[in-house]
Specification:
By secondary structure, the chain is an alpha/beta fold. It is built from ten helices and eight strands.
């Protein structure tokens, strides 16, 4: 982030990074609620581009056509009775973003520097409003390297596959846990070896292994870290 961008930031920014299946979304939502902050799911932004690409028959490998989709789309995060929702160009796409294959296509298109540049700009705009908990894969390293607190969550692949299996099962989709674990490992390889903004912890990030921890235990650790930094402010 440029110095000028950082100077414009108002208020607290907490970065939650890590691979899929480690509990980023759950923890980030819980933390945002506890702190009275906005929760920003940057992964949903990449999935939104993937969804637009599907609708307009654009290949996830076509960087030149994908970048304008990311730049021009209007994305809003809204609170609903069921939790956070996502509006894409005024349409509620909360459920559509979780359709089978959308996350895979989002991972493919996230390799393109042109796409990442367009979405990072939007993510910084959200962060510059202040008091946000932002989750993703490069928040602490690229989007907000000056975040007030950086957390990197991880877990053993088998546990991540089990969690993803339970998520799909709740939606009535039956997929073998072993298949999901393999998909997670393939995604890790792709994310960790891409040339632009590879998945890795920021040097000053606090790493938390969530394999044997429940969400409340992870949340307690993060709140303790915020207290140590004098940043723990709950909503009123």
């Amino acid at each position: 982030m440029s110095k000028s961008a950082n100077e414009k930031r108002r208020g607290l920014v907490i970065a939650i990074d890590g691979p899929s299946g480690v509990g980023k979304s759950t923890i980030a939502r819980f933390l945002a609620d506890r702190m009275g902050c906005r929760y920003i799911d940057t992964g949903a932004m990449y999935r939104a581009v993937a969804l637009l690409a599907r609708q307009r028959a654009v290949s996830p490998d076509d960087a030149q056509c994908l970048a304008p989709l990311g730049r021009d789309m209007e994305i809003q995060f809204i609170e609903t009775a069921a939790g956070q929702g996502v509006l894409l160009n005024g349409e509620d796409v909360t459920l559509s973003l979780r359709l089978p294959g959308v996350s895979e296509e989002a991972s493919r298109l996230s390799r393109h520097p042109e796409v990442r540049e367009a979405l990072v700009e939007k993510q910084r705009e959200f962060g510059q409003q202040g008091r946000v908990v932002m989750e993703g894969r490069d928040i602490g390293t690229v989007v907000f390297p000056e975040a007030d607190l950086k957390i990197f969550l991880d877990a053993e692949p088998e546990e991540r596959g089990r969690r993803r299996y339970l998520q799909w099962k709740e939606k009535g989709i039956d997929v073998a846990p072993e298949q999901l674990t393999q998909e997670i490992l393939s995604r890790d390889q792709r994310d960790q070896t891409r040339k632009v903004a590879p998945l890795l912890p920021a040097r000053d990030a606090v790493k938390i292994d969530t394999t044997h921890l429940d969400p409340e235990q992870v949340l307690a650790r993060i709140l303790a870290l915020l207290s140590e930094k004098g940043l723990r402010q709950t909503k009123t």
